[in-house]
Amino acid sequence: xxxxxxxxxxxxxxxxxxxxxxxxVTAFLVAVAAYPFFEEWATGDRSDHHLLExxxxxxxxxxxxxxxxxxxxxxxxxGSADLIATxxxxxxxxxxxxxxxxxxxxxxxxxxxxxxxxxxLQRRDRDILHHGYETGRIVRLPGGEYIEVHRPIxxxxxxxxxxxxxxxxxxxxxxxxxxxxLARRAQARLSRWYLADSIDSETGARMVPISAGSAG
Length: 216
Description:
By secondary structure, the chain is mainly alpha-helical. It contains six helices and four strands. The strands form two sheets. The chain has a two-stranded antiparallel sheet with strand order 1-2. It has a two-stranded antiparallel sheet with strand order 3-4.
């Protein structure tokens, strides 16, 4: 926390350097507890999930998780800022400035990088599902064309790599007055954000939910 964050009220001096970190950590823990319910509402996926989903199949959720880990990790590292400064022979003020910057930009960078990695792994899995594993063996066809021989994957691997569940489709429905509520619009937009750019393992189509028109 920046120094000098204090104010006087009710004949007492209140130190924001203590109150704000407590509020931030409390809000973080509440967000962690409430997140499953928020995602269920945003995606409309209320089905039972008896098996863990591969992280790459839920890139937005995985990105949010890694962003949360980075956020908490920076706070955890800040508790030893003095030891970091002494062990690496750097200024304490410099360590604090770096940690303050990481606390703000670190989670955003972690989210973007993790999400892109998951989407790239989705594309790689789809290529393996359709063509098999690369063997490094090059053969020449009768027509003179050179191709690489691929090894087909087994049924167990196919089941593991394929998306186990269909995409979630959010249908926006008007209320009794024929209007779409703000909550319904927000739900549809959040659903598109969660599933944007994800790839169907069989068709290769983007996993974007279909929104119904406002007409009844």
